[in-house]
Fold Folate-biopterin transporter 6.
Amino acid sequence: MGTTETQELAEIPPPDPSKEQLLSHDEKIEQLVPDTRPSKSLLSIIQQPFHWLRMLCRELNTSFVLGVVLVYGLSQGFSGSFFRVVSDYYWKDVQKVQPSAVQLYYGLYYIPWVMKPIWGLLTDVFPVRGYRRRPYFILAGALGAVPALVIAVHAKLSIVMALGCLIGIAASVAIADVTIDACIARNSIEIPALAPDMQSLCGFCMSAGALVGYSTSGFFVHHLGAQGSLGLLALPPALLVVLGFVIYELKTSGHSEKKMALDKLGGAISGMYRTIKYPQVWKPSLYMYLSLALSISTHEGQFYWYTDPNAGPAFSQEFVGMIYAIGAMASIVGVLVYHKVLKEYPFRNLLFFAQLLYATSGMLDVIFVLRWNLKLGIPDYFFVILEECVSRIVSRIRWMPMIVLSTKLCPLGIEGTFFALLMCIDSLGSLSSKWGGGIILHMFHVTRTDFTNLWSVLFIRNILRFATLSLIFLVPRADQSDVLIPSDLLTKAPDAVSSDAEEEGLQLVSMNEKLEA
């Protein structure tokens, strides 16, 4: 070895043992061995979801994965989207009801969802023959399949009977949702490492089901009619009945666990009462309710106008379903925008600008109804898709931080129960929005054939959306990563409630999943 080489080796500093300790075994191997691995082939990328599903089936039980697919994919995703389009045509073409009345009826669909905490308590406190989940899947299936068949078979149901059947279908979805969420909560506690994977599975199933439901709804309405299409909604509940017999569940002892659950229920009610009194909690809760209630829904008036051959653009059934399908994909874009760009902004700033954008984008509806798009040379088909995409993206960006804020308002120990309460408040806000929109449509004489004042109703809706900006002071200035609940409240959570996180985490898992739909 020459002198020059000896000097160069002497100048090389000795390895730092502290740095070596920071390197994992795999990183050391990667430094020593050159990476000769080939890039992933297209086939391996296609196989990854199947390997992932196989892993979930192996770790969580195949019947559980099947349950998630049936409840989130078929019951909520497909049935929910299919139901929305087909029921609109049913009220319009079969029952021939005015749009203002349909708005009021539609608000009643939210009642089973408002009652979700009750369904959850029933599954926890009142097992049937030692099973807390299986019987309620069967109940949900029967409650959904029978009304769907009744509507399909009877040529002319009364409005009261038809409304009862449709509410029964909605109740079926809500009960199945609560029951599978209980299973998800248990698995998330027992195998916490797979909790994100379970949420991803739920989100994918719901999104895929919604796309299929929206895409096929117009086709079936065109060929089977609205009444016959509603009969197809008996299939997902029937599969829920099958799920109730095959899903894996351990049998409980019964009486002792029921007493413990009743004790925890009393502690949860006490904890919720103490929590809701805090200004840090009731103020943002009030804002979320008012922001939903003041944004009155005009969906039915617009739907009737969309399909009217004289006053409106006369969209076909297939195209109406396609509009909603594209909107569902736009909602996913809204989730990605929030996740990648907006999740670091403070609550108040983000909600202020999201609400401002929400109110501004609502003017697209006014432009469309006044047919100014045609004066600008923009075809109806292109403009309605543009309007739907913008509306869905903005709505999702506005909704996501409110859900995150809701999770921050939940005290430790009763987080699931209190989150369910907040979701009930939001459901009441949506119900108020539907009923308020129906009243305004009726006051302005928007009917099945007269849409002269529809633009005025839309303009009032947008003014109310702008007015909601004056309530932004109810939202905390905190960042989305901050802790909002006082620490003393967290430490004073009742022991009877915090002793078993399994029972109290049900709704938190459920509603977080709804963000992905």
Observations:
- Residues 349 and 391 are 20 Å apart (CA to CA).
- The first helix runs from residue 3 to 11.
- The chain has 26 helices and no strands.
